[in-house]
Fold each of these.
Amino acid sequence: MRFLSIYKAKERNTPVTPEETAAMGALIEEMMKKGVLLGTEGCLPSAKGARIRLENGAFIVKDGPFTESKEVVGGFALLQANSKEEALEHVKTFMKIAGDGECEIRQLYEAPAR
């Protein structure tokens, strides 16, 4: 099963430390080697982004930064796991390094084999 993990980080006012970068790099390398992590990327601050909404046929675009920090996506990971519980354990390991925030995981639809 594949899962999308969406990390909603608290926006930081300080840069990431070299130690934090090294720890995250080591985790990513380990999870990629195990075949658990299929892809991952971090997002730039919300000040560089925008939100677009379609409402009653009209598009509404709101440039960042976004005031609701709990709604700001900090990055994503595409995971391979045998169960939701296994995916949750991988996300908990990630969050121990990433720090405060929230992850939402969603199992991805996989079409049945023909």
Amino acid sequence: MNLSTTRVIGNVLETTWGKSSSPDGTYSVKYALAGDRLTLKYTTVVHFAGERALGPQVDAAHNQAIQLVDAKLGEVKDAYKAVSGSSLKLEDLGGKDDLELIQSTAGSDRKIAYYRYNHVFQIED
């Protein structure tokens, strides 16, 4: 991947200076760029009602993550094309999710956790 491609992708994805991934603050989609690998990182906080609800709630969070990452990827591709005049070519290397428990109240089934989904793409020149 050349330096020009790296600069354009970095500028398109930059969210440090006052830009928010979610207007209501319920999730974020950030990125990591390492060599020719672009990782889109989705994070949200989920509240689980109980052990039985865990599976369906994780599935719902996963589906939302995929939709939002796909939407962000579409924005990136559109912005990249607008800035560079060429299409951004990516190879999909797959995604992985993770659940990190951050609060569990004794005597209650309610749990609070971070749900994270990382999707990796290889940038092709």
